[in-house]
From TrEMBL:
<keyword id="KW-0418">Kinase</keyword>
<protein>
    <recommendedName>
        <fullName>Phosphorylase b kinase regulatory subunit</fullName>
    </recommendedName>
</protein>
<dbReference type="GO" id="GO:0005977">
    <property type="term" value="P:glycogen metabolic process"/>
</dbReference>
<keyword id="KW-0112">Calmodulin-binding</keyword>
<feature type="domain" description="Phosphorylase b kinase regulatory subunit alpha/beta C-terminal">
    <location>
        <begin position="467"/>
        <end position="597"/>
    </location>
</feature>
<keyword id="KW-0321">Glycogen metabolism</keyword>
<keyword id="KW-0808">Transferase</keyword>
<dbReference type="GO" id="GO:0005964">
    <property type="term" value="C:phosphorylase kinase complex"/>
</dbReference>
<dbReference type="Pfam" id="PF00723">
    <property type="entry name" value="Glyco_hydro_15"/>
</dbReference>
<keyword id="KW-1003">Cell membrane</keyword>
<dbReference type="GO" id="GO:0005886">
    <property type="term" value="C:plasma membrane"/>
</dbReference>
<feature type="domain" description="GH15-like">
    <location>
        <begin position="2"/>
        <end position="437"/>
    </location>
</feature>
<dbReference type="InterPro" id="IPR045583">
    <property type="entry name" value="KPBA/B_C"/>
</dbReference>
<dbReference type="Pfam" id="PF19292">
    <property type="entry name" value="KPBB_C"/>
</dbReference>
<dbReference type="InterPro" id="IPR011613">
    <property type="entry name" value="GH15-like"/>
</dbReference>
<dbReference type="InterPro" id="IPR008734">
    <property type="entry name" value="PHK_A/B_su"/>
</dbReference>
<keyword id="KW-0636">Prenylation</keyword>
Length: 648
């Protein structure tokens, strides 16, 4: 029936009996900017007459949580508005907007369920909305105070504000200006980085942010130039089916408030001793509960509560308080005191997940990368398609069930890598899979190599952890970091970064190796690999990457990549040569090790210690690798082309 209908419509169009505007009255066949708009009720993309994106101005509205905070900000020349002052416009959390979009396109007869409950991005929260007769502005997701601990780090929030503005300025293509709400909370005042936030707001007041034009003002004055979207589909629902929406609430105080930052009580620099509580794993519950009543350190409480968590129900009560509630309270206390190790420990036990994790995974995937979740040196789960938050949580906590801190650390890594790959994809050139376990291992190595007393990753603040992630991925391009060749090989090998055109060169090597190649006992045969795949096939690159991932030592993996590059050079310079059988690449590296030790080290040195080889520059190691290759070619038999040279 569908085919018959399309045939009839096509004939009518060809005969001129039906016009395309009659077939599609709303003209969806046209670009969005050229479609007829009914009294500008719906947002549209910019037309050609609209100025270029470089002339874009991002509008910023500052929302203070209370009048007390507003008065204090005014003493520094920062004009803000409270939720009451922007009325009748309401300030919403992006979660409230998610509730609205759940009803978009719902049709029970067709089995359509509407938009999934996924976070609203920066572009979506930069519009004003007309919903059920109300005008709404949503603040971005970065200002959401959620269960996860990233919102406790002010330094991270400041960087996120800059990144959010930059992202909106780069990708905004809608008619009207984007309007971004910056929410300032009273808890922010007590943070040691609050003065940095004031500096950022002062810069926005001057009308710029990292080269982006910004206009900061009262919301009522910015509405006329904003992008406004009308969400009319809620009118189709019965009144009793409408969800209940909660606007951002203003805090009320009886006192007038603080006059300056000197009056605000600051968060204290908290420190406490750490003890080993592993002996309690073998003790009964009553002894653990008894010890818990005498432990006054956050670390001690988190360790003991963690032991109980794996033995009893989350609803198990201790002194009238459920175990789950006690852990939640401990998380908030540790977050206020910036005790990040305890925060991460409790968050992992409670199985918490970053709200915006799914979009960051999608960002990594659309940039041509895959991502793996797991612990370094163990089997990892590959994510090669977008997943729901529930599926992501299941994978993370299944892969990291025996590693408490790992489950939350790799979530942070995914968030930071997702942001980096969207803004600076060049940092990830040569990396086919983002292996989160290996990235965390590389971060530990970086701290070990750059600090005499390296801190544990779980003890770093989220902003400090993000800096470590950035340093790891920029190591090869950062001239300020002095590191030995051995250390560099370990970090680059952990990331499994390969040179340009590496997989194409491995393909060329495979064409000259009838038996294929062997790495760590794992065989990649020439056939049917070359007959079923092509040189540009992603599956071939994934097979080679998987072959390299079986190598446990990162520095050895780095040398293996170098070896394959050297083999390709030798075979290209000697087109008459080819291997007669499969090639065990580990044997070639061992030969290079042996020759290096015989010539560069004393006879009594440890034959198993190859640190000096790893610490040598590539110009030296490549020389020994090439000698090992030629030795095997000449002694183990080579295939020599017998084609006669002819002149046509």
């Amino acid at each position: 029936m569908m085919g018959q209908a399309l045939h009839i419509i096509s004939k009518l169009l060809l005969e001129g009996l039906l016009h395309i505007t009659e077939l599609d009255p709303v003209r969806r066949y046209l670009p969005s900017c050229n479609r007829p708009r009914r009294t500008d009720r719906y947002s549209a993309f910019q037309g050609k007459a609209v100025s270029a994106a470089t002339d874009l101005v991002v509008q910023v509205v500052l929302i203070a949580e209370s009048m007390r905070l507003q008065a204090m900000m005014a003493t520094y020349g920062i004009q803000t508005q409270t939720p009451h002052e922007v009325e009748p416009v309401q300030i919403w959390s992006p979660k409230q907007l998610m509730k609205v979009y759940e009803f978009l396109g719902v049709n029970r007869k067709l089995g359509l369920k509407g938009r999934p409950r996924r976070p609203i991005g920066a572009l979506g929260t930069s519009k004003l909305y007309r919903i059920c007769g109300q005008t709404v502005l949503c603040y971005p997701l970065i200002f959401e105070v959620n269960d996860f601990y990233l919102s406790h780090d002010m330094a991270l929030l400041i960087d996120d504000i800059k990144n959010e503005l930059t992202f909106v300025g780069k990708y905004w293509r809608m008619s009207g200006r984007p309007t971004m709400a910056i929410v300032i909370r009273e808890d922010n005042m007590r943070d040691s980085h609050f003065k940095e936030l004031l500096d950022l707001l002062a810069m926005l007041k001057k009308g710029h942010c990292d080269g982006l034009k910004v206009r900061m003002g009262r919301l009522q004055n910015l509405i006329s130039s904003s992008c406004i979207e009308h969400l009319d589909f809620l009118h189709l629902l019965p009144h009793d089916a409408l969800p209940k929406f909660e606007a951002f609430q203003q805090l009320e105080h009886t006192n007038t408030g603080y006059q300056s930052l000197t009056d605000v009580p600051k968060a204290i620099a908290y420190s406490e001793p750490s003890y080993d509580y592993s002996s309690f794993y073998s003790k009964p519950n009553n002894e653990i509960i008894e010890a818990l009543s005498h432990v006054d350190t956050l670390h001690g409480q988190s360790q003991l509560l963690g032991i109980l968590w794996h033995r009893v129900s989350p609803n198990f009560t201790i002194d009238g308080v459920m175990l789950k509630d006690r852990l939640e309270k401990l998380t908030r206390q540790a977050g206020a005191l910036k005790h990040w190790a305890v925060v991460r420990h409790c968050s992992s036990i409670l199985g918490k997940v970053v709200d915006s994790l799914s979009p960051y995974i999608t960002a990594i995937l659309v940039n041509g990368k895959q991502i793996t979740v797991g612990v370094f040196g163990r089997d990892e789960a590959v994510i090669d398609k977008p997943l729901t938050p529930k599926e992501i949580k299941s994978i993370i906590y299944t892969q990291c069930k025996d590693h408490v801190y790992h489950a939350v650390l790799l979530q942070e890594v995914i968030v930071y890598v997702g942001r980096l790959v969207s803004t600076t994809p060049k940092l990830f050139e040569g990396i086919l899979k983002i292996r989160t376990g290996s990235v965390i291992h590389a971060m530990n190595l970086y701290l070990k190599f750059t600090s005499d007393n390296p801190p544990a990753l779980e003890s770093l603040s989220p902003s400090e952890l993000r800096k470590v992630v950035y340093q790891v991925f920029t190591l090869r391009d950062n001239a300020d970091i002095r590191m030995s060749q051995h250390c560099t090989r370990q970090i680059e090998g952990a990331l499994c970064r390969v040179p340009k055109d590496f997989f194409d060169r491995v393909w060329d090597v495979m064409t000259r190796t009838p038996g294929g190649i062997v790495v760590g006992g794992h065989h990649l045969p020439q056939q049917p690999t070359l007959s079923e795949l092509t040189i540009y096939d992603l599956n071939f690159a994934l097979q080679v990457e998987m072959l390299l991932s079986h190598i446990s030592l990162p520095e050895y993996r780095h040398v293996m990549i170098e070896l394959l590059m050297v083999i390709d050079v030798i075979l290209k310079r000697n087109p008459e040569f080819s291997f007669s059988d499969k090639v065990d690449l580990d044997v070639l590296i061992r030969d290079a090790f042996s020759m290096f030790k015989a010539e560069k080290e004393s006879p009594g040195s440890d034959p198993n210690n190859v640190t000096n080889f790893y610490d040598s520059p590539s110009s030296v190691t490549s020389c020994y690798l090439s000698r090992g290759i030629m030795t095997r070619l000449l002694t183990s038999g080579i295939g020599i082309s017998t084609e006669e040279c002819s002149i046509s």
